[in-house]
Design a protein that fits this description.
BirA Bifunctional Protein, domain 2; homodimer; 455 residues; five-stranded mixed sheet; 2 domains; alpha+beta; aa-tRNA-synth_II (chains A, B)
Chain lengths: 455, 455
Amino acid sequence: MAKIAALSGFPEWLPAERQVEQHVIDVFREVAELHGFSGIETRAVEPLDQLLRKGEIDKEVYLLRRLQASEEEDPAADASRTLGLHFDLTVPLARYVLEHQNDLAFPFRRFQIQKVWRGERPQDGRFREFYQADLDVIGQDVLPSHVESEVAIVMAEILSRLPLPAFSIHVNTRKLSEGFFRSLGFEDHTAVLRSLDKLPKIGEDAVRTLLVDEAGATAEQADAALAFAGIRSRDASFGDRVRALGGTGEMVEEGIAELTAVLERVEAAVPGVILADLSIARGLDYYTGTVFESFVEGHESLGSVCSGGRYDRLAEDNRHSYPGVGLSIGLSRLVSRLLSADLARPSRPVPTCVLVAVSDEASRGASETVARTLRGRGVPCEVAPTAAKLGKQIRYADRRGIPFVWFPGADGAEDEVKDIRTGEQASASAGSWQVPEEDRTVRILPASEAARPRS
Amino acid sequence: MAKIAALSGFPEWLPAERQVEQHVIDVFREVAELHGFSGIETRAVEPLDQLLRKGEIDKEVYLLRRLQASEEEDPAADASRTLGLHFDLTVPLARYVLEHQNDLAFPFRRFQIQKVWRGERPQDGRFREFYQADLDVIGQDVLPSHVESEVAIVMAEILSRLPLPAFSIHVNTRKLSEGFFRSLGFEDHTAVLRSLDKLPKIGEDAVRTLLVDEAGATAEQADAALAFAGIRSRDASFGDRVRALGGTGEMVEEGIAELTAVLERVEAAVPGVILADLSIARGLDYYTGTVFESFVEGHESLGSVCSGGRYDRLAEDNRHSYPGVGLSIGLSRLVSRLLSADLARPSRPVPTCVLVAVSDEASRGASETVARTLRGRGVPCEVAPTAAKLGKQIRYADRRGIPFVWFPGADGAEDEVKDIRTGEQASASAGSWQVPEEDRTVRILPASEAARPRS
């Protein structure tokens, strides 16, 4: 017999765990739709030349080849005909927008929750197959800057509805960083950003050396750049600190004004989560305006759980350019942590709320009628698989985590329903029984208590 | 610039079309959960040797290969290490059940809605990437026969909630067919089934020839087999017709009893859709008990939209065997027809119910507050992207199909809301406005009217 084994890097959840993942997907979708975003899906494959457009990620791509393909079909031969699995949802979005530009209304508000694949070596928390959840607003030629705070608000709402400990959204804007480094006299501000980007990994001293050696900074400039990157502020006060470090000029003032507007708008919508963090740089060649990262308290090792920002060139053709603002959640990575750190668990492992008992096979039809009535009222039900002794049927429900067992009354007697958690049993009628609302469907609970039994 | 083009066989929907697909997925999930089925997902890839276990479908598999894989990694070299994309959800289920048997409670009730891939040449309605929606009950060693009608009931409930014309579920059981052909004196009853399976494609005369030439039938036996396959009945009367054609013996009588029980149970649960159809054979080597197919009136060319049945050997190892009963919907194929035949359309193309107008950028914050209040009450909202003239903002809403435009009152004046379909405008407060329930979220409507504009 073939060996059955898990594949490293391809996570799979047990049914109870999948409920947590489904909940995160549902929350993302619900919040996105409340903000008027349309859900789309794109095909899993793109032509290889599209996937390699950015040029940096070539070793991560999985190519496809039909098992029965003829020898001549060398997958590497024709990059426009060779198909690979998408490694993110941005490349497909760019292609989708260009392909369907005449059928879309701009600004195009879309969300997309799909699996992506990367052929990298699996490591702690790095998967080869994982869900990504993206949300973007794409303009045609123009996109107003207030969209940047709008996307941060959506991000804050999604995170605040997930079973997470306290989180914070760190925001910066390219304009402020670039303006500041220019006003300090740096010629190559991207070299400065590139050095600062390494702060979390290599620390302040090593970055100071980099700034001097690679960005051509004086010791004084390096100190100012590091002081700038150290600024954190929940209100507009960051502006004065930037000015005190020597930040001057139109670009700096515009950056301060933009960042202040984002802070104020997000604070008004979802209080207490946004802060200016001038160390945030991310995706240097990609983002062109406001940038966001978000961190969960006590789980900083996860890195940013939800990131985004403005990019002015998602796509373009001879007629139009398509600027965008987007956010992205590495959903599988987040779910994996929710599960492994016991941050969330379903109120029960199965959807079933009521097990309808069967006293003998001849009366199975009566039990099915009860179940049908309850389902018609929105109560998830199963009928017991066998007419075993009632004690055995109760144990069956208990083992699956089903909270109620229903006993149809024989010979005109009333039905009874038992809450097997409390042992309480009462007369009931399927057409009028009031199920406690917290038991009707599965809820996902923050599970701060001691570790639950995994299984 | 790289060419942007659709890929044949990889369907993609516009946002409004995706709403129809999402609706079908939501209905499937809702009904499955009401019946106590747990949703799972499996990884998209399986080892090639697992995919080829059934031996018949090898030319349909897409193999994966990392772009940067070294030359030695010949994808065909080691079938247990080579990965391919799954082409159905049954092979992954069998592997999942074996891998996780110690963590699952049996009978295991699971549903699974995922994309699958087949490298075949795309044809009318045949895709290379498509959604499949499966639902199965898997037993450990044993599985009671009443599960067969239970699954047919779930099938009937799903189909009855979809925006379809009248449909019917055709049911048969292997026991009845096999028993009948044995009692006619056929030695090789699978040869008979294989011939009869071709009825829809090649017709009665050609099948009669096959029965004589390949199944060794006499002219009389062939006529009886064809008469048997012609039996259709909504009640138990099919039994007498089988007996009149010469069906006798224990196996025939057991088959009649089982099929009658399925008819009665499904009829009690969802009246008017089930019928016995003794021509149904499907998956000869796979199914071992009751088999189902379902057809939509006026769309018989689609073939069966939802099929299933009992199979006694989904998986097995040294300790256990895993019999199952399942159903499967070729979801993309069905959605494709819903769209192309204009059977269903969303009540509006975007999730947004209300566009909150912005009279000038300085008051954008007030518009955002209105939107936040409405969202808090479950009303999907967008704020106008620019403070254009109000007529232009109304046209923006109209172009996107947003039914309401909200005008925040300036200087203490009351807010007003306009239904742009009727032109009606009235005072309103975001905290108490009663949105018509049919407008709050998008609904999917049967669209029997004339063809809608496809946009």
